[in-house]
Amino acid sequence: MEGLQKGGEDTCIKGGGEESLNPGSFWLRIVLAGKTGCGKSATGNSILGQPAFESRLGAQSVTRKCQAATGTWNGRSILVVDTPPIFEARAQDQEVYENIGDCYLLSAPGPHVLLLVTQLGRFTEQDVVAVTRVKEVFGARALRHMVILFTHKEDLADGSLHDYVANTDNLRLRGLVRECGQRYCAFNNRASGDERGEQLAGLMAVVEGLEREHQGAYLSNDLFFDAQRLQQGGGDPHGEGHVRYLAKVRSHVAKQKQDLQEAQRNRAFKALLRVKNWIVVHDELCVCLVWCSLLFLLILLIIWYHL
After folding, report:
1. Do 168 and 196 touch, CB atoms closer than 8 A?
2. pLDDT confidence tier of residue 213, bands split at 50, 70 and 90
3. How many domains are there within the chain?
4. Using CA atoms, how far apart are residues 294 and 285, in angstroms rounded to an integer?
5. In the predicted model, is pLDDT for residue 24 greater than 50?
6. CA proximity to 141, closest of 263, 41, 294, 274
7. Residue 98: inside a domain, yes or no?
8. Are 44 and 80 in contact (CB under 8 A)?
9. Does 155 fall in a domain?
10. 121-132: per-residue pLDDT in tens?
11. Burial annotation 229-246 (CB, 10 A radius, 16+ → b, else e)
């Protein structure tokens, strides 16, 4: 497929039915996610221990197409998929859907880990949007396979990452950490030697815990099955099969977005219903609170009048 890149010659992955359910066996597939400029490519290079993806500092994305590269860790084969700006709020054009389709093809039959890359101390609205887009692209269950990776670990100096996360006043970050089952780690993407090895071991410890939790299962959905079928059919980028596949990608993302919006409306309705039920149960208390508020306002008016 045009723009599809895989590093190395040993990137062919076994199908879902041939994968062992034992953590640590066969391929480990990791998809890098996050906002533009968060350091996804540099993080991928740190994981693989080689400059597999182009990376440079800047506000604009260097990565224009989905790419995959492979490496090993403690004898286990790792496939890392780097992504262009498909997790942005404005990411809705045809090229974006082609990149989403490529991401599915490169990580089929499904990723074990969605690695959300964000800079330490800079979890912003763009990161929140990126998390929402991850759910739209991969489904609401995506967070069950998500690990948060903070870049710029060196900024902690002698501080603890656990203390930073536990004591942050960023409520959205704290909520995301809870949703992700407290799975997080940090990288200094300029590290080398023993330091790089130690932080990679930290990530792999989190990943292995995630795999044990899911008994080795990876994230999968109907679109991953479609991606596998396209691969088995040869995957001609100009063929009718590929055109149909891209149409399924678009409809899949649209449905996921609709489902998320419906779920949000349901949560809001249930919250209002809980408030209503509380008021019904505590009607006397509510009446008392209203009278107390009116009395307080009256006292304020009297004081203001006599000033």
Report:
1. no
2. very high
3. 1
4. 14
5. no
6. 263
7. yes
8. yes
9. yes
10. 999 999 999 999
11. ebbeeebeeeeeebeebb
